[in-house]
């Protein structure tokens, strides 16, 4: 039967796990929508016909 390969030590994972144990897990982040999604207005200028019909 094959033996399992030992995982390589990672200093960053060890530091992060120690910080989580001491402080706790970080709060979830509220994502801000990208600029493209927040600027969903009209893409084109209104035509002359639409401008005249509104008045």
Secondary structure: elements and pairs:
Blueprint: H1 11-22, H2 35-38, H3 48-54
Characterize the structure shown.
It is a single chain. Helix content is 42%, strand content 0%. It is mostly helical and 55 residues long. The longest helix is centred in the N-terminal third of the chain and has 12 residues, at 11-22. The radius of gyration is 28 Å and the shape is elongated.
Nutshell version of this structure?
The chain is mostly helical and 55 residues long. It is built from three helices and no strands.
List keywords for this structure.
55 residues, mainly alpha, 3 helices, elongated
Backbone structural class = mainly alpha
What is the makeup of the main sheet?
A: none
Provide the helix percentage: 40-55%
Order of helices and strands: HHH
| Strands, total number | 0
What is the overall number of helices?
3
Distance between the termini: 85 Å
Low-confidence stretches: none
- What's the mean pLDDT score? 83
- Estimated radius of gyration: 28 Å
User: Tell me, what's the shape?
Assistant: elongated
Strand content: under 5%
